[in-house]
Amino acid sequence: MGGAVTPAWAWGGSTGRSVRVCIVDSGVERDHPMVGRVASAHVVVEGDDGRPRTVPSGSGDVCGHGTACAGIVREVAPDCELHSVQVLGERFTGTGDFLLAGLRWAVEQGFDVINMSLSTTHERFIRELHELADEAYFRRSVIVASAHNSPVVSFPWRFSSVVSVGSHQEDDTALHLYNPAPPVEFYAKGQDVRVAWRDNCVTRTTGNSFATPRIAGLCALILAKHPALTVFQLKTVLYLTSANVRATDPAHGATPTPAAPVITPAPPPRPESGADPVGDGLVSAHGAGRQAAPGDDGQRPDGRRGSPPPPETQPEK
User: Fold this and answer.
1) Rounded distance between C-alpha atoms, residue 178 and residue 184, angstroms
2) Residue 166: which of 152, 145, 181, 180 has the closest Cα?
3) Over the stretch 46-78, which tens digit does the pLDDT of each residue have?
4) What gap in Å lies between CA 173 and CA 244, rounded to an integer?
5) Quick one: which of 76, 102, 195, 223 has its CA closest to 156?
6) 252-257: long-range contacts (C-beta < 8 A, 24 or more apart)?
7) Which of 10, 157, 13, 25 is nearest to 90 (CA)?
């Protein structure tokens, strides 16, 4: 790739400018202080023929989850171009048909990075979802997908054509790790994360959902500096720049290998007492905000209370 692959080579000086990132989620609240400008917003709705279709939207975010993801991407890649397509509803869930329609639209638009902090466990959607993931891969649109918070088989994060992400429990928000024991490929900060929320609020939350946009933002930084990279090459850059991969001298023919594990992935988040179940949706988000404590979190920037985020939710049953 034109020299030693280091963090400085990969994204040093990059702000994500000119890279188009799409958040496939619950929508994104426009002009939130932690999100900034949203270049376009769309929503999947049921058409007159009963089939889902994607149309422009002005409704913002219905539950806060997408805004949280968008804010993290903006934090990592402040000058990227953010877009949104809403496929989830108020209880952090949606249907597989809506997920497919929203993802298909995002792939057709040719976004550079597509963040998916959600998945489905239902087998009837797997084949079409896999085809879409492969189409994105060959179009050079990188799908960054969240691993499920529970030890269940769900998709699309288990497809090799996407970048799959779980969360570690270290304090360093810039730290990303390679996982030598797939199917999860990379870990990023996703525990006790301060995030944007709906109604101009902020909160603290936990889940693989919030590790995923950190890697999506990192992909935006890399692609802004190296726009010709394929998804395969981008994955290689993420691997070579992981904190637990030993740097070696390519002049001597050495191959980088994962270092002895020193950091363990975070345990799955557990619902707090009294948490609402996700419901019977076919697609679920991988992390939701918990009740904000009095003080900074849960406050509007002007000091007034905003609509509080919901309690942390259980993964899909």
Assistant:
1) 9
2) 145
3) 988 889 999 999 889 999 999 999 999 999 999
4) 15
5) 102
6) none
7) 25
What SS3 state is found at 23?
strand
For residues 24 and 105, give the distance between their C-alpha atoms in angstroms, rounded to a whole number.
10
- Render pLDDT for 138-195 as a digit per residue (tens, 0 to 9): 999 999 999 999 888 999 999 999 999 999 989 999 999 999 998 999 999 999 999 9
Q: Could you identify the residue written with the tokens 């969240």?
A: 146
For residues 74-103, b (16+ Cβ closer than 10 Å) or e, as one string? Answer: bbbbeebbbbbbbbbbebbbbbbbbbbbbb
Q: What is the reported pTM?
A: 0.84
Contact 167, 189 (CB under 8 A): yes
Residue for token pair 């009740």: 291
Q: Which residues does residue 16 pair with via DSSP β-bridges, in sequence order?
A: none
